[in-house]
């Protein structure tokens, strides 16, 4: 079994869509060349069959048994070659389709991981989803059609040469008739692509709407807006459906034209050939061969039209792909090094002492998220890590040493043990300790397969609180130098929250930890508490000290209760 595609997709040429497609073709040049060779031979064998059949008919007419056996044997041999080349052509076509499509998947996935939070700011969810749903297929098809398209051109040239050498008028008729048929179909391609583009935009917008609805379903139900958005989704889905019907209308006309126009050419060739046969200018066997050639040419002609359609679609799809690949991250790093130490955000005044469990309570949740984003280098800011500006460190270095874990993180499909220990370096004891610290042992014990249980997409088999605890386990097992947790206990009950608060400090002993929360249970167990309002630090101390000295802090963490 061949590995597909290459482990390293390489560096794509994104200067233009055609350059991207050409780069893809060069990356798989050996398989493309092999596929084109098989496809060309496959078409050539079919192109020779009418001539062999004609010779066989002439042998029957002349009652030449030896010639009949010889031509029958040749026809049988051509059939075997056609069967073999057809199988190999199809195998190479599938391989080239998959290689091009999944190389694009690798590139876009790698770019999405590189961009991080930049991607959703620059492109809608629907636009990104559409790349995965349709554009990769079009790029794969643009590579696949090169095989049959090249072979079709060779087959048409071969048939034309045979016809001209046999009968100049019939050969010229085919020579000029085939391009005219292709030109006649051409005007249908532009409206087809225009309608396809419009349908794709509507489908992308619909995907974005669906993602927004799913993400905010609980809120929508809470405010009674579920029906309003359902009606809006229904209206937009009907628009996408009508656009699809319009696309199908043009496609049906195109399919009909691909049958009718070659049929006209067949009728003309057959009629002219029949008149030549009646006049005695050509034998009956050649008339049959001319008819079969005219019928055979329907295949190559349709392939050429298909090639024009798929290559155009591939060009448009490549344009959308390179749009993603050309986006640069908002956050970039330098090449400096740092031994670590105090992590300080100059804008807010928040300072994290090495080895301490610090809690940050903010009057507005947005303020806490902004501080976490700056400290984790997900947003620009004047942050220092020891004696070094955080912006001067390589982004990869920052990501490996500072982990920001919020409730927007997702569980991925796979074995539970692998999803929790993403680095694959934790021992069984370390996993159990992390589960104990996050009060998540009961979750694993309740699963029939324990650690070997398969996690469904986004961990949907777990409740909100269970997902939150499993995300905390994953963050603890990552064991970063600095761990920043954003509301890690917001979805669990008070008893579980108290146990997590008791165990979190022990689990992170000797390492820098920041917990962004307004939960008194967590704040009371922190070594140091910082209160932020309007983006600035207003007070710091222990939880109980701040309750006595900062009315604003007390009002925030007690929700205004006495």
TrEMBL record:
Gene3D superfamilies: ABC transporter type 1, transmembrane domain, P-loop containing nucleotide triphosphate hydrolases
InterPro entries noted in UniProt: ABC1_TM_dom, ABC1_TM_sf, ABC_transporter-like_ATP-bd, ABC_transporter-like_CS, P-loop_NTPase, Type_1_exporter
Membrane topology listed for this record: Multi-pass membrane protein
Segments forming domain ABC transmembrane type-1: 33-313
Top-level taxon of origin: Bacteria
GO cellular component labels: plasma membrane
GO molecular-function term, one example from the UniProt record: ATP binding
Pfam families cross-referenced by the UniProt entry: ABC_membrane (PF00664), ABC_tran (PF00005)
This protein's UniProt keywords: Membrane, Transmembrane, Transmembrane helix
PROSITE patterns: ABC_TM1F (PS50929), ABC_TRANSPORTER_1 (PS00211), ABC_TRANSPORTER_2 (PS50893)
Subcellular location per the Swiss-Prot or TrEMBL entry: Cell membrane
Domain ABC transporter: 322-559
Transmembrane segment boundaries: 29-48, 68-88, 145-164, 170-189, 259-279, 285-304
Keyword Magnesium carried by entry: no
Keyword Transmembrane found: yes
Protein name: ABC-type multidrug transport system, ATPase and permease component
Organism: Nonomuraea jiangxiensis
């Amino acid at each position: 079994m061949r590995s597909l595609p290459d482990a390293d997709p390489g560096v794509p040429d994104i200067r233009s869509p055609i350059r991207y497609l050409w780069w893809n073709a060069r990356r798989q040049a050996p398989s493309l060349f092999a596929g084109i060779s098989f496809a060309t031979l496959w078409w050539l064998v079919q192109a020779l069959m009418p001539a062999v059949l004609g010779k066989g008919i002439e042998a029957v007419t002349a009652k030449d048994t030896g010639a009949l056996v010889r031509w029958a044997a040749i026809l049988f041999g051509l059939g075997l070659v056609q069967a073999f080349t057809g199988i190999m052509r199809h195998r190479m076509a599938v391989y080239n389709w998959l290689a091009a499509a999944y190389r694009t998947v690798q590139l876009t996935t790698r770019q999405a991981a590189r961009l991080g939070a930049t991607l959703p700011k620059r492109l809608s969810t629907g636009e990104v989803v559409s790349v995965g749903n349709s554009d990769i297929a079009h790029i794969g098809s643009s590579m696949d059609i090169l095989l049959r398209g090249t072979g079709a051109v060779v087959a048409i040239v071969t048939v034309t040469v045979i016809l001209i050498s046999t009968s100049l008028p019939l050969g010229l008729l085919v020579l000029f008739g085939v391009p005219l048929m292709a030109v006649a179909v051409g005007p249908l391609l532009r409206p087809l692509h225009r309608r396809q583009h419009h349908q794709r935009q509507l489908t992308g917008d619909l995907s974005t709407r669906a993602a927004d609805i799913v993400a905010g379903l609980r809120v929508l139900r809470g405010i009674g807006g579920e029906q309003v958005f359902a009606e809006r989704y229904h209206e937009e889905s009907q628009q996408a459906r009508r656009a699809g019907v319009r696309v199908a209308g043009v496609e049906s006309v195109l399919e009909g034209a691909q049958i009718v126009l070659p049929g006209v050419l067949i009728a003309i060739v057959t009629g002219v050939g029949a008149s030549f046969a009646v006049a005695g200018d050509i034998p009956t066997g050649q008339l049959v061969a001319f008819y079969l050639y005219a019928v055979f040419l329907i295949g190559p002609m349709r392939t050429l039209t298909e090639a024009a359609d798929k290559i155009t679609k591939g060009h448009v799809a490549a344009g959308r792909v390179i749009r993603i690949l050309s986006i640069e991250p908002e956050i970039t790093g330098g090449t400096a090094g740092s031994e670590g130490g105090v992590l300080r955000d100059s804008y807010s005044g928040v300072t994290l002492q090495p080895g301490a469990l610090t809690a940050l309570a903010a009057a507005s949740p947005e303020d806490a998220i902004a501080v976490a984003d700056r400290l984790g280098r997900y947003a620009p800011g004047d942050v220092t890590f020891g004696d070094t500006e955080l912006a001067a460190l390589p982004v990869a270095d920052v990501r490996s040493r500072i982990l920001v874990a919020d409730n927007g993180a997702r569980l991925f499909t796979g074995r539970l043990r692998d999803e929790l220990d993403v680095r694959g370096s934790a021992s069984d004891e370390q996993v159990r300790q992390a589960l104990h610290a996050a009060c998540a042992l009961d979750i694993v014990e309740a699963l029939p397969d324990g650690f070997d249980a398969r996690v469904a997409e986004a961990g949907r088999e777990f409740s909100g609180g269970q997902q939150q605890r499993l995300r905390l386990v994953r963050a603890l097992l990552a064991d970063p130098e600095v761990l920043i947790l954003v509301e890690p206990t917001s979805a669990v009950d008070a008893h579980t929250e108290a146990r997590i608060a008791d165990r979190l400090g022990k689990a992170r002993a000797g390492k820098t930890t920041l917990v962004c929360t307004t939960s008194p249970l967590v704040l009371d167990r922190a070594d140091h508490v910082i209160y932020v309002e309007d983006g600035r630090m207003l007070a710091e101390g222990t939880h109980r000290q701040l309750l006595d000295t900062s009315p604003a802090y007390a009002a925030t963490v007690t929700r205004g209760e006495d």
